[in-house]
Design goal:
- By secondary structure, the protein is of the alpha+beta class.
- The chain folds into five domains: about 25-95; about 95-290; about 300-420, Immunoglobulin-like; about 450-570, C2 domain (Immunoglobulin-like, Sandwich); about 660-805, Immunoglobulin-like (Sandwich), CATH 2.60.40.
- About 25% of the residues lie in helices and about 35% in strands.
- The protein is built from 14 helices and 36 strands.
- Strands 1, 2, 3, 4, 5, 6, 7 and 8 form an eight-stranded antiparallel beta sheet that branches. Strands 9, 14, 17, 18, 19, 22, 25 and 26 form an eight-stranded antiparallel beta sheet that branches.
- Strand 10 and strand 11 form a beta hairpin.
- Helix 5 packs across helix 6 (about 255-270) and helix 11 (about 595-605) runs parallel beside helix 13 (about 630-635).
- The longest helix is centred in the N-terminal third of the chain and has 42 residues, at about 5-45.
- The radius of gyration is 31 Å and the shape is globular.
- The two termini are about 40 Å apart.
- The model is unreliable at about 5-20, about 90-95 and about 580-675 (pLDDT under 50).
């Protein structure tokens, strides 16, 4: 921190201390007097001690819960006020995105501009909060019997929004648009006050962090050269705040979740995909170009089942089971499975479909909860874990059938099946889509997607004598319903809003539009459009046509546009990751045959020459599959590490022995296996692992494939092995992971995947401890650990998947 900024900070702190010292002393005295008075009254009236102990326990829990949150807020606020160098030195875990991603650029010049225009942003945000967010929050709170919500003061403070980095896409992008992602972070000193149910309260230390996408389109030849902007978050941003004033009494775990959930919902409804915030910059561009939905496809999610969930309920003999349900989230779209009582292995067989506007950067998030009875609106359920799936991977493969490991808990896996459905403008694909849904025998599945743009209405009748109506439009297709904004006091409302509807069967479904007066809730007019009428239209669409409103005035009309798209499964898409792989392809010719791959790898030293058949017979034969891209990457880097796990069309090197990674020989615990002994150097067997680090998701991914040649000392006591993982050096319970137990097996095969959330800075200082444990021998003096090894993560290049065999060693001491 510079000398001037340091002096300024110290002066601010001194002013705050001086201004609040008297008040803090008075407040402290009042608390002491109140405490003594309460104790005196309890004794005077001979009340039970429970009246004193209960509030004290709740107060202690509340204070401890708020300490951690307050620390995080203060650190984030300090980071927002410091420069780049100080942020990097102070918080290695929270580095800006340009540190990790080479294609993300620093934009300190933009942060300086934001600092200059921040007072003007304050005025714009005040109008936005008052006109858009306040009515929606009020309506949502009324569902919890909390009436009269109203903002009183809205000041964003002096600390501006900060942009951690910007990535501009220059590949696979239309020439008529510019797409860029911005890492948005706000941790300011806002001052927002409100009233709710006669109680005055406020919000301080409001924070929001997320990846925001800005699409500039279309590009035009006149100034300002860009017709408009579309601003939106790819996934739900992280939002946190602190309640002050009388509302601080509600700031306890569970109760404050109501307000926090409502604010998150309002932000998602406004600008989290598939919702976008359009900004029109030129009058020559029709509003439909910016405000009409533009989905890229539909993601069909099948939540099949889960296994080995945590036992959260208390039974008669200790821990009972759980009542699990799952919540699936994609952007602003959320779905919930039904609850299955008294099980840790639920079978939901739940289907849902989500509209995807941009598969690049979006994730499907799945959370599992144990249902517990509680008060309405209060989160009383127990957390059972979370998992995410990248949408891009589903688009690339067409279909994904995977068991995902739940994060944040000791155990639990969920079985997911995901299918990517593209949008087709051909009516010939409808028959196949209907046949597919009939084959699935799921009535909620869709065959089409209807895009609707409601432009305006004209000549509405007078719903109230001598007063103009406040009209809004209500759209529905089947059970789905959407509403436009309310236009105040007008007979000719202009909405200019777009919506998307999933359609079960376009041959029989219809679109219903009602125009309603908000104050009287009276229907002004309605129209029905049968979707099969679009079959005869060019490209299955109708462009901005007026339709007469029935049950309305003789000249009342509504103007809207329709576009129908058929859901079509197209299989894997080879060009999804083209923008990431293009650089790697440069300078390499196509490798077509397995012999060319082997000769190139042997020549470059990436793979040893195949051993003789006699030598190979003494080793476990596991073919290593290598893609063309993987072979090129290995040749370019000159690395002797192994290749990635296969994900595309693969070629198999069945003649070569398993490719192994050889760490430095000084650490024998995770040395590569000797080729002269199939049971490893210590004779305790070997284990095959795949390790990879995802920079984008900040996760270490560990795949436990198999264990071979475990020693069998007693033929009558065959081991029941499972693999246990810990992150060192602390060996905390949160880092514990374990596979299923294989009964009576010396060569178990697991193929289970585990994730650890780690920053790239932490990765270099961590070790992964892998132990093979048997469940037998409870009354034996011998340790249940059959073998163990430790991987120094900092010694491996985990930017690409590393698949290796490791020798199991005797159990090491607990202090590593």
């Amino acid at each position: 921190m510079t000398g001037a900024s340091k002096e300024k900070t110290e002066s601010i702190v001194q002013k705050r201390i001086g201004g609040t010292s008297i008040l803090s002393v008075l407040y402290s005295c009042a608390k002491k007097i109140g405490t003594v008075a309460i104790v005196y009254l309890i004794g005077y009236f001979e009340l039970s001690a429970a009246w004193l102990i209960g509030p004290v326990i709740l107060s202690v829990i509340r204070d401890e819960w708020k300490k951690d949150k307050e620390l995080r807020r203060n650190v984030a606020k300090a980071a927002a006020m410091c420069n780049e160098k100080e942020v990097i030195l102070a918080r290695v875990d929270d580095l800006p995105s340009w540190v990790f991603f080479p294609d993300v650029e620093r934009v300190e010049w933009l942060n300086r501009i934001l600092r200059q225009v921040w007072p003007n942003v304050n005025h714009y945000a005040k109008t936005l909060i008052k006109e858009t967010i306040e009515p929606n929050v009020r309506a949502s709170l009324e569902a919890y019997k909390l009436n009269g919500f109203c903002f009183q003061r809205m000041i964003l403070g002096s600390i501006p929004l900060r942009i951690g980095g910007v990535k501009v896409y220059d590949r696979n992008v239309s020439r008529n648009e510019i797409i860029m992602d911005m890492d948005i972070f706000y941790a300011g000193d806002c001052d927002i006050s409100f009233t709710i149910g006669g109680i005055k309260g406020g919000i301080k230390d409001f924070q929001i962090h997320g990846m925001m996408r800005v699409v500039m389109k279309p590009l035009i030849t006149s100034m300002p050269l860009v017709g408009g902007l579309q601003v939106f978050f790819l996934n739900n941003p992280t939002i946190d705040f602190n309640l002050v004033g009388m509302a601080d009494l509600l700031d306890m775990p569970g109760l404050s979740d109501i307000l926090r959930r409502i604010i998150v919902e309002q932000v998602a409804r406004m600008m989290v995909l598939p919702n976008k915030l359009p900004i029109q910059l030129s009058d020559v561009i029709p509003a439909k170009v910016l405000k009409m939905p533009e989905p890229e496809g539909v993601l069909r999610v099948h939540v099949v089942e889960a296994k080995q969930l945590m036992k959260m309920d208390i039974g008669v003999l200790g821990k009972g089971k759980s009542d699990p349900y799952a919540i699936i989230t994609l952007g602003a779209q959320q779905f919930r499975t039904h609850t299955i009582d008294n099980t840790v292995n639920p079978k939901w067989d739940f289907w849902c479909e989500a509209v995807v506007s941009s598969y690049k950067g979006q994730e499907v998030a799945l959370e599992v909860w144990d249902w517990d009875a509680g008060f309405p609106g209060v989160q009383n359920d127990d957390y059972l874990g979370r998992a995410t799936v990248d949408v891009r991977g589903v688009v690339k493969n067409g279909q994904v059938d995977v068991w995902v490991t739940l994060e944040g808990v000791k155990s639990g896996m969920v079985h997911l099946r995901l299918t990517w459905l593209a949008l087709s403008g051909s009516l010939a694909d409808l028959k196949a889509a209907i046949a597919e849904t009939q084959l699935l025998r799921v009535t909620s599945m869709s065959t089409g997607l209807l895009l609707v743009f409601v432009d305006s209405a004209k000549n509405l009748p007078n719903a109230r004598p001598s007063k103009k109506p406040d009209p809004y439009a209500q759209l529905s297709v089947g059970k789905q319903q959407e509403v436009t904004n309310v236009e105040m006091r007008t007979f000719d409302p202009v909405w200019e809003q777009g919506f998307s509807f999933l359609v079960n069967n376009p041959e029989s479904d219809s679109l219903f539009i009602k125009v309603i007066d908000q104050k009287t809730t009276r229907e002004i007019g309605c129209v029905e459009y049968k979707l099969h009428l679009l079959f005869d239209k060019p490209d299955l669409q109708v462009d901005s046509e007026p339709y007469r409103l029935t049950r309305s005035g003789p000249d009342s009309k509504i103007d809207f546009s329709l576009q129908l798209r058929i859901l079509k499964y197209e299989g894997p898409k080879e060009d999804v990751n083209e923008d990431e792989d293009e650089d790697a392809e440069e300078g390499f010719n196509e490798i077509e045959t397995q012999e060319e791959v082997e000769s190139l790898l042997v020549r470059e030293g990436s793979v040893k020459k195949p051993d003789s058949p006699e030598k190979q017979a003494s080793e476990p034969s596991t073919p290593v599959k290598i893609t063309k891209q993987e072979s090129r990457d290995s040749i370019r880097s000159g690395s002797s590490s192994s290749f990635q796990q296969p994900t595309e069309d693969l070629m198999t090197l069945s003649k070569a022995p398993p490719v192994v990674h050889t760490p430095p020989s000084g650490d024998i615990r995770h040395r590569a296996p000797s080729v002269s002994s199939s049971a490893g150097e210590a004779g305790l067997g070997r284990i095959q692992l795949t390790l990879r680090y995802s920079v984008q998701r900040q996760r270490l991914i560990v795949v436990v494939h198999k264990v071979v040649n475990l020693p069998l000392k007693d033929p009558t006591n065959i081991p029941d092995p499972y693999v246990k993982l810990y992150l060192l050096p602390e060996r905390a319970k949160d880092s514990k992971r374990k596979t299923e137990t294989m009964k009576d097996n010396c060569n178990p095969v697991y193929d289970e995947t585990f994730d650890y959330i780690l920053s790239q800075g932490e990765l270099n200082s961590r070790q992964l401890e892998v132990s093979v444990v048997t469940r037998k021998g409870w009354f034996s003096s011998q340790s249940p650990i059959m073998g163990q090894m430790v991987v120094n993560l900092g010694e491996l290049d985990l930017s690409k998947a590393v698949t290796s065999w490791f020798d199991l060693q005797p159990e090491s001491t607990k202090d590593v």
